[in-house]
Amino acid sequence: MKPWGIVALLALVLVGVAGTAGYVNSLPPGNSSTDDSAENTAHCLAKYPVPDTAARFTARAQDVYSGCGGTEVLEATDIGNRLVDTEEPSARLVLLIDMPGHQGMFSKQDPVTACYQVEFNYFGLDNGPDRIDCPQDPFRPGIPDGYENAFKAVLAELPPTPAEEDVRKALQAKLPPLPVNAKTGTTWPAPDVRVYVAWGVADIGISADARRGRCLQGTRLADGTVTVWFQPPPSPEAQGMVTCTPENAVDAQRRPK
Questions:
Q1: What are the pLDDT digits (tens) for 188-241?
Q2: What pLDDT, in 10s, does the model give residues 60-101?
Q3: What's the per-residue H, E or C state across the chain?
Q4: Which residues face 218 on adjacent strands?
Q5: Cβ neighbours, 10 Å, residue 227
Q6: Where are the domains of the chain?
Q7: Is the pTM of this model over 0.70?
Q8: Distance of alpha carbon 81 from alpha carbon 76, whole angstroms
Q9: In what side-by-side order are the strands of the sheet with 226-231?
């Protein structure tokens, strides 16, 4: 091949590589791990008996006993009649997959948040999951509004030496209703609320764990000091994660400042 031919061929190869790189870079956020997680969730949601509405697919995703729990549903839409045409999609969900970052001795993984669209028909999975750009205003309530004030009120009003059951009943009476996702019509799963009363010293701890680093903790120490705070999510560089428990809340406030 003549020299000018080699140059022309090289130029075409470089243009092709650049075009491919541009296509890859234009994909919505995500990686192979989020792709696998979305794929597993989609197949789990589609297992028999197949839900008959988008809201029921969402409920299965939120049910910790379904095996599909842990994935947030940002949008759920009924888009067809599954009984009229069994092979056409009848429900569409937008799933959000969060992968926390980590820092190891020989590797580092940045955190990534990815969204996927998936469609279901009468028989199960129809289309997807396909990576998409996340909605501009996703429904991610974390700790519901009002929980912080309820924690403060309960800790301030409890008697000097309450039993754990007294603390639980007081919290149940003060905690506000859970938020409802207007796009899915479902109530968000309640945070995991726990209480702890240290034996013999009257230190009280309470916590609400909404998962993925969303945690509210509160304490009342024996001297009457009440403290309520949101635990910051773990950084990618953290080697371990502080557990969202009432015992850890008490330990944190007992430490010398």
A1: 778 889 999 998 778 999 999 887 668 999 999 999 999 999 987 555 444 444
A2: 988 777 888 767 888 999 999 999 999 999 999 999 998 877
A3: CCHHHHHHHHHHHHHHHHHHHHHHHCCCCCCHHHHHHHHHHHHHHCCCCCCCCHHHHHHHHHCCCCCCCCCEEEEEEECCCCCCCCCCCCEEEEEEEEECCEECCCCEECCEEEEEEEEEECCEEEEEEEEECCCCCCCCCCCCCCHHHHHHHHHHHCCCCCCHHHHHHHHHHHCCCCCEECCCCEECCCCEEEEEECCCCCCEEEEEECCCCCEEEEEECCCCCEEEEEECCCCCCCCCCCCCCHHHHHHHHHCCC
A4: 206, 228
A5: 15
A6: 32-132, 147-254
A7: no
A8: 15
A9: 192-197, 204-209, 215-220, 226-231
Spatial separation of the C-alpha atoms in residues 35 and 90, rounded to whole Å = 23
Which phi and psi angles does 171 have, rounded to 5°?
A: -65, -45
Which one-letter amino acid corresponds to residue 107? S
| Residue showing tokens 């330990």 | 251
Task: Copy the structure tokens of residue 234.
Answer: 């773990």
Phi and psi dihedrals of 132, rounded to 5? -135, 165
Q: Which residues pair with 76 in a beta bridge?
A: 93
